[in-house]
UniProtKB/TrEMBL annotation:
It comes from the Bacteria. Signal peptide: none annotated. This is Putative efflux pump membrane fusion protein. One of its GO terms (cellular component) is plasma membrane. Keywords: Coiled coil. Residues 84-132, 164-191 form a coiled coil. It comes from Bergeriella denitrificans. The keyword Flavoprotein does not apply.
């Protein structure tokens, strides 16, 4: 029994010693590598209501993964549905107005055709009357007819000419009615387009009563609950984008001055035996923790600049359930472009 206890103690000491040795080695970074502690951050999106209304149901659960377009919150939509039905009814009335205007135009076109036929007939009668008048005048010259006959033929011609003018006036009036019907059709068609736009607007407003996820993400908080009355622009759900994972670290002036956006970086999190790849996405131009007067070299050394390390989207998506906002760890950057990553900072993803 004593032998077993002795072996257990020796094993524990060996494991503990190895862990202590690794911790000591990790704390010694080679030249050209700088580190700073930080916390993981996931991009937060506050989903808001476009319209005011009463919350009918909250369909999103905190911590649940959602897809873009999934319904998160449903608002009471009786008013929007009524407006949509009203707009649809108005659109039907406008389409019926177009049909009536088109039917009226067809009738007026038939009237124009009949009027043109009357004009053609009147002109033919005028030509015949002109021939008979001319013939009567020739016969009068040969004293084969009387003057009264010539006068009668002339009166027939003049009546035929007047009939032509009347028929042409009737035709012109029918054509004007056709033009008017075209304008009525155009006005009715414009009303149809306007009614269609109103239907789309009402349908959009009615659909917006269903508040949907704008991205694939994870529900962080439910801000609104069923029964709440929310105003236009009020937040209802907070989403996290699991593909937008970053860590902010702070480095002194002498370290950040040699960094560039796009440089490689590494992230090591507490409690996870892994090294995640990262990239410098942002370097602050304004210092943090600035002393009141920056005059001496010691004071300048106190200036700290924020550096944002971004985890690649593919890596963030692959380990979306593992990487959580608020996790603590360390970020590592190269202050010398020629420096090599030490073996303990080689990319090593969790299994």
């Amino acid at each position: 029994m004593k032998k077993i206890i002795f072996l257990a103690v020796v094993t524990a000491l060996a494991v503990g010693g190895g862990w202590y040795y690794r911790q000591q080695q990790q704390g010694k970074l080679p030249a050209g590598i700088a580190q700073s502690n930080g916390r993981l951050e996931l991009n937060r999106i506050d989903v808001a209501s476009l319209y005011a209304g009463r919350v009918k149901a909250v369909l999103a659960e905190e911590g649940a993964d959602v897809k873009a377009g999934d319904v998160l919150v449903e608002l009471s939509n009786e008013t929007s549905e009524s407006r949509l039905a009203e707009a649809q009814a108005a659109a039907v009335r406008q389409r019926e107005a177009v049909s009536r205007a088109q039917a009226a135009q067809a009738q007026t076109k038939q009237s124009v055709a009949r009027a043109q036929a009357n004009v053609d007939a009147a002109r033919q009668q005028q030509r015949v009357a002109k021939l008979e008048w001319d013939n009567a005048r020739r016969l009068l010259a040969d004293r084969l007819v009387s003057q009264s006959e010539v006068t009668k033929r002339q009166a027939d011609f003049e009546r035929a000419a007047a009939a032509v003018k009347a028929a042409e006036a009737a035709r012109d009036e029918a054509q004007a009615v056709v033009a008017q019907s075209r304008a009525q059709i155009a006005e009715a068609e414009a009303g149809v387009e306007q009614a269609g736009a109103a239907v789309k607007s009402a349908a959009s407003a009615n659909d917006d009563m269903l508040i949907r996820a704008p991205i694939d993400g994870r529900v962080e908080y439910k801000i609104a609950e069923a029964g709440n009355v929310v105003g236009a622009g009020s937040r209802v759900v907070s989403l996290l984008d699991p593909t937008d994972v970053s860590m902010n670290i702070f480095l002194p002036t002498d370290s950040m001055s040699r960094l560039k956006v796009g440089d490689e970086a590494r992230i090591r999190l507490d409690g996870i035996d892994a090294v995640f790849p990262a990239e410098i996405k942002f370097i602050a131009t304004d210092a943090q923790f600035t002393p009141k007067a920056v005059e001496t070299a010691d004071e300048r050394a106190k200036l700290m600049f924020k550096i944002k390390l971004q985890v690649p989207i593919e890596t963030a998506r692959q380990f979306g359930r593992l990487l959580k906002g608020g996790m603590t760890g360390n970020g590592f950057v190269k202050t010398d472009a020629q420096a090599e990553w030490p073996s303990e900072l080689a990319v090593r993803l969790p299994e």
